[in-house]
Specification:
Distance between the termini: 26 Å
Number of strands: 0
Largest sheet: none
Number of helices: 9
Oligomer: single chain
Helix content: 55-70%
Structural class: mainly alpha
Strand content: under 5%
Order of helices and strands: HHHHHHHHH
Shape: globular
Length: 196
């Protein structure tokens, strides 16, 4: 899983084909989870790729309309968190989950990214962003598995609540943690070599 996510982000970082799914900094999550589905899940069909993409797109649209997908506005929760929610929902759809399980998977994935700051070292989406894509992909798969084994009727947190919470968190977050490289790892990790 991690290799799939790293490969997409390394291609982006080396000026290869740029993937924005939903953003450049979070480009590896959705392709990695899709590749996981194709490679490791039983019942794979070509038609389900379209269902995967459409489901992921709809979840992304919900976040974009009611919150943000921009790290400059919401920190990394808005990029890796949203892409993880998109991928979790899409995987759940393709694995036969109900509509409520699909929404539950998106909620679970985002819930565990709330408050994640965007603090790229050197102002680039290489560190820590590339590794965060691997974690977002793994969380998406775990969220999907949890949702598929759960009864959404018993869920304590809804997707609506987590979208609102993400936006509230983004509003409260200090601006230095929103893609400025003025806080977090960006100021605590010295850059001793010029960027490639």
């Amino acid at each position: 899983m991690s290799c799939f996510a790293l490969a997409v982000n390394e291609e982006n970082a080396s000026f290869g084909r740029v993937v924005t799914a939903p953003t450049n900094g979070a480009a590896g999550v959705i392709p990695a989870v899709l590749q996981y589905y194709i490679t490791f899940c039983d019942g794979y069909e070509e038609e389900k790729i379209m269902r995967f993409v459409l489901t992921a797109s709809e979840i992304g649209s919900i976040f974009k309309k009611r919150s943000t997908i921009s790290a400059a506005m919401g920190g990394c929760q808005a990029e890796i968190g949203v892409s993880s929610a998109m991928a979790a929902a899409a995987l759940t759809e393709c694995l036969g989950g109900s509509q409520r399980q699909v929404l539950m998977a998106a909620e679970i994935a985002m819930e565990h990214h709330l408050g994640l700051t965007c603090d790229p070292i050197g102002g680039l989406v290489q560190v820590p962003c590339i590794e965060r894509n691997t974690m977002g992909a793994i969380k998406a798969i775990t969220a999907s598995q949890l949702a598929l084994q759960s009864n959404p009727e018993l869920a304590k947190v809804s997707l609506d609540a987590v979208v609102k919470t993400m936006w509230d968190t983004a509003q409260d977050m200090n601006s230095k943690y929103k893609e400025t490289s003025d806080g977090g790892l960006a100021v605590n990790i010295p850059i001793s070599l010029p960027e490639c």
